[in-house]
Design brief:
Distance between the termini: 80 Å
Number of helices: 3
Strand order of the largest sheet: 3-4-5
CATH class: Alpha Beta
Strand content: 15-25%
CATH topology: Double Stranded RNA Binding Domain
Radius of gyration: 26 Å
Number of strands: 5
Largest sheet: 3 strands, antiparallel
Number of domains: 1
Helix content: 25-40%
Structural class: alpha+beta
């Protein structure tokens, strides 16, 4: 993660200006500070309208992250794992980087392969055996 943005994958860099960070009160136990300190980090990133992502990468990310997007095309992530704002901020930025890096990665092209002759023979032998089992169940009507 650079100071001017988040390096997602190769040459894809998301400027920090495209990311909205806010802080809210974290739930759970926390003693006297729990109702006073807003340490939970909430990150919003508009994936649909981001100019930083190339179009093929954006389409892959929109498809893969569709269930996590709001109706406006925003990705919302939170982190309340730590008790301080800076650590939660770093954690949520790292989660965004990892999520986008996995989503924009192009799929590896499939290498066509053929089953070996032995594998085909095993498959056909298994089919013949299964057919014989089913044929043996049949009750002749003579």
């Amino acid at each position: 993660m650079a100071s001017n943005g988040i390096r997602v994958h190769g040459e894809i860099l998301i400027p920090l200006g495209e990311i909205q960070l806010s802080y809210v009160r974290a739930g759970g136990p926390g003693g006297q500070n729990v109702n006073k300190v807003a340490s939970k980090a909430v990150l919003r990133f508009n994936l649909r309208d981001s100019p930083s992502l190339p179009e093929p990468a954006r389409q892959r990310a929109l498809t893969r992250l569709a269930s996590r997007l709001t109706s406006a095309g925003e990705l919302v992530l939170t982190s309340a794992a730590y008790r301080t704002q800076p650590r939660n901020r770093a954690a949520v930025l790292e989660r965004l980087r990892a999520l986008l890096a996995a989503a924009v990665r192009a799929p590896r092209p499939r290498t066509r392969t053929r089953p070996s002759r032995a594998a085909e023979e095993r498959r056909l032998a298994a089919k013949r055996a299964r057919a014989e089992i089913k044929r043996a169940r049949c009750i002749p009507l003579d």
